[in-house]
Amino acid sequence: MQIARVQIDDIHVRPHDVLEEVQDIIFLMFPRLNSYKVIFDISKVVGAYIDIGKLFRGDFCGYRKCNTKYHDLRHTDDCLLIVARLIHGAFLNGCRFSDRSVILGLVAAILHDTGYIQTVDDTEGTGGKYTITHIDRSVAFAKKYFEMKGYSSKDFNFVKKCLYCTGLNVVIKDIKFESPDNEIMGQILGTADLIGQMADRSYLDKLPHLFEEFREGGITDYDNELDLLQKTPAFWEFTKNRFVTELGNVDRYLRDHFRVRWGIDRDLDREAIEKNLARLQYILENHPADYRHHLRR
User: Fold this and answer.
1) Nearest CA to 102 among 80, 87, 115, 117?
2) Average pLDDT for 126-150
3) Where are the domains of the chain?
4) Beta partners for 80?
């Protein structure tokens, strides 16, 4: 299997083939084969990745193509990649997960924003109108998808608890997890959802699209695009606090992942976020009148 190459000039390491890199990471922890049989079967993850790719591209029966430009397939890819990195980092720090927990954690990442996708008969507006309710809609899609694919109800409940961990106002201790594995996979997904979007090289360029989704979804916290940009540094401070107070501080595992996977003893994703925020601050201070032009890479 060809290994995705690190682009050091792209501080946020994002391999060309995300699924291939995810598989390579998982096989660092679990042997795939011995002489007689497959030991770790990642086929459910691969199947979900293919299916949800079709969903976002408009090739999944009963659903329209994704039309949200912030919560798009790229974000799902980024979230999935961070989940795999965090699982590996946790493993390096002594966490031992069952095969089932790893598979369901990865599948939860793949499914986590399916609630933005409209059905074929839903032709008004975009999926952004579901911003407030998208987690419940993602859970509903996951239930339907799991029934279609023959997952157990117990597996669905595991994934459902993980999906709810992506809510920004959710109190994690109020969720009744089925196991310690379920809780840490939920914390990992909640963390990866935030890091995946903010470490993206296109993060600043996509922020106006986030405002569009918020406006259509009825979120009134921001007066306009510029107001959202100006409040983004404060959102990062909120996010860092949430990592510690609600999400188990699992983001600390990223540095060990990069150290072992690539021989780079730094958290490249945290650096990518800080680089994005520094660039945003520069734009706000120097180009507030034509900020859109400067958001583009």
Assistant:
1) 87
2) 98
3) 19-295
4) none
For the stretch 94-116, pLDDT in tens is 999 999 999 999 999 999 999 99
CA 280 to chain centre: 22
The phi, psi pair for 33, rounded to 5°, reads -140, 150
Could you give the CA distance from residue 100 to residue 102 in angstroms, rounded to a whole number? 6
Q: Which residue is listed with tokens 């579901």?
A: 130
Amino acid type, 155: D
**pLDDT-based confidence at residue 189 (cuts at 50, 70, 90):** very high
> Would the pLDDT of 7 be above 60?
no
119 DSSP β-pair partners: 63
- With 0-12 / 13-18 / 19 or more C-beta atoms within 10 angstroms meaning exposed / middle / buried, residue 98 is exposed
| C-alpha neighbours within 13 Å on the C-beta side of residue 15 | 21
pLDDT in tens, 68-97: 999 999 999 999 999 999 999 999 999 999
Q: Is 46 exposed, middle or buried (0-12, 13-18, 19+ CB in 10 A)?
A: middle
Distances (CA, A) of 242 to 8, 74, 129, 248: 29, 24, 25, 9
> What whole-number distance in Å separates Cα of residue 116 and Cα of residue 128?
7
- In this structure, the number of other CB atoms found within 10 A of the CB of residue 22 comes to 27
Q: Locate 254 and state its tokens.
A: 């990223």
For residues 111 and 48, the answer to whether their CB atoms sit within 8 Å is yes
Per-residue pLDDT for 145 more than 50? yes
User: pLDDT class for 3, splitting at 50, 70, 90?
Assistant: very low
- Contact of 110 with 41, CB cutoff 8 Å: no
Considering the domain delimited by 19-295, tell me its CATH architecture.
Answer: Orthogonal Bundle (1.10)
pLDDT band at 36; cut points 50, 70, 90: low
How many angstroms separate the CA atoms of 196 and 262, rounded?
Answer: 19
pTM for the predicted model, two decimal places:
0.94
